[in-house]
Amino acid sequence: MIHNSSPTIVVIGCGVIGLSSALSLQEVLRNDKSKSSWQVVIVSKEWPTSIPGAPTHHSIEYSSMWAGAHVRPIPGTTEQLRQEGLWLKQTVSKFNSLLKAGNQIGLALAPAIEVFEAPGNGYKAQTAESFEADSGLKGYRELTAEELPNGTVLGFEYESYCINSPVYCGDLLRKFIIAGGKTINATLRSVDEASIITPNVQFVVNASGIGFNDSKVFPIRGHIVLTNSTCFDKTITRQNMDGTWNFIIPRFFSGGTVIGGTKEPHDWRRQPDSATCHRLITGVQDLKQHVLSNGSPSQPENMSVIQEIVGRRPAREGGLRLEIEFPGNMNSTESKLPVLHAYGAGGRGFEISWGVAESVAELARSLMVKLDQIKGRLARL
Ligand SMILES: Cc1cc2nc3c(=O)[nH]c(=O)nc-3n(C[C@H](O)[C@H](O)[C@H](O)COP(=O)(O)OP(=O)(O)OC[C@H]3O[C@@H](n4cnc5c(N)ncnc54)[C@H](O)[C@@H]3O)c2cc1C
Ligand SMILES: *[C@@H]1O[C@H](CO)[C@@H](O)[C@H](O)[C@H]1NC(C)=O
Ligand SMILES: *[C@@H]1O[C@H](CO)[C@@H](O)[C@H](O)[C@H]1NC(C)=O
Ligand SMILES: *[C@@H]1O[C@H](CO)[C@@H](O)[C@H](O)[C@H]1NC(C)=O
Ligand SMILES: *[C@@H]1O[C@H](CO)[C@@H](O)[C@H](O)[C@H]1NC(C)=O
Ligand SMILES: *[C@@H]1O[C@H](CO)[C@@H](O)[C@H](O)[C@H]1NC(C)=O
Ligand SMILES: *[C@@H]1O[C@H](CO)[C@@H](O)[C@H](O)[C@H]1NC(C)=O
Q1: Per the domain annotation, does 1 fall within a domain?
Q2: Rounded to whole angstroms, how far apart are CA atoms 58 and 350?
Q3: Which of 115, 278, 295, 317 would staple 152 via disulfide (CB 3.0–4.6 Å)?
Q4: Total domain count for the chain?
């Protein structure tokens, strides 16, 4: 039931960014007595109901259903990477407290290994101290020459997180609903539509991922393979000289193992291709042999493919758009509403999710102050 009288914040999108933001907004409202009658409504055309391997109708645009996903810090060599690094650190801190609080579904602490054929300077300069200070992740250790897989020249390990993305998003949605959140299943044609989809909307959060038509937004195609393997207890990533990647991400909570993957900007192909699938599977045989020679898996196992997956990462030139857009003159009585944009997370939506959500909450708090002031002024007219 949507309460018609309640002042409402509409969040467009039920991906990891919309969900995390919606939960943070609920907390903002809980902590502000003057907003106790407010509610948050998620409007989306797709919802986290996917069980990979079982029938599903999700589009390849619904990125959060297809993500690996793990947390893998990237050295802050550009402005955008430094901003994402801050969000990642906030997310790591939130993941920690979520796991401590228990009952967390879809999220697991797990060792991570990264190896490189031709590491950039940012990776070469990294130390245990700088890595932990930048990311909040513990246990950083450089691999010895003997531990490095053939062809790689640098490697390290640390304690990270693996996320079974459909399960995790389903859990966030359950938490949102239990906390009083409302949902509307609809395909919006424009953001204007969001402001009238339910009565008394105060402002709109645009977390539509690849969304509708920002010309700066483009897809990065990701081809991964979901297998039935259960022998990995860590996530392993290899960056090759030619720009290709090989990675293994266990999907804890009975989700098999993701073998990846490609990162193909502006590539609109929807179908997986068998050559890539073959390259990915072969690529991890090598990682299994070399990186895991002293630990799991103890036995070579027969791995079968459950599903070949293609997803689109919602990338944006310059990175995620995070700002409030005010329609026309805020002091006029025109009906258009402010929009708080939070889209274009690219390949990092899960690992930066809670940092972005906290920024959304901050912007929302400042926006609500502004809206209160305008209301006060209009009331005096
Ligand atoms: C193969 C692959 C591997 C990845 N691995 C990782 C990883 O290891 N770590 C990591 O952090 N990230 C990873 N990512 C990236 C991650 O999936 C994305 O960054 C993240 O899912 C983006 O979330 P989002 O909420 O912005 O967008 P989405 O998940 O795409 O959600 C957008 C939402 O908006 C809704 N919507 C859009 N348009 C409309 C409309 N017109 N009307 C109504 N609703 C609308 C959609 O239905 C959807 O609910 C990976 C992605 C892929 C494809
Ligand atoms: C290591 O890689 C080189 C070059 O790719 C190859 O010639 C050699 O056979 C490999 N060695 C092993 C042990 O796989
Ligand atoms: C949402 O609505 C669309 C269009 O009416 C429908 O096809 C889809 O099944 C609905 N999704 C859910 C989860 O109800
Ligand atoms: C897309 O952009 C065009 C031109 O900028 C604009 O006229 C149109 O309303 C936009 N459509 C949507 C769905 O936002
Ligand atoms: C909302 O976000 C989408 C990208 O997901 C973008 O195409 C669209 O233009 C945004 N809406 C507005 C009004 O800017
Ligand atoms: C893998 O499958 C082959 C053929 O089906 C079988 O001979 C072999 O024993 C299996 N290996 C394992 C580790 O299960
Ligand atoms: C995966 O599937 C293969 C082929 O069916 C089978 O041999 C193997 O035991 C399965 N692995 C697991 C962990 O179930």
Answers
A1: no
A2: 18
A3: 115
A4: 1
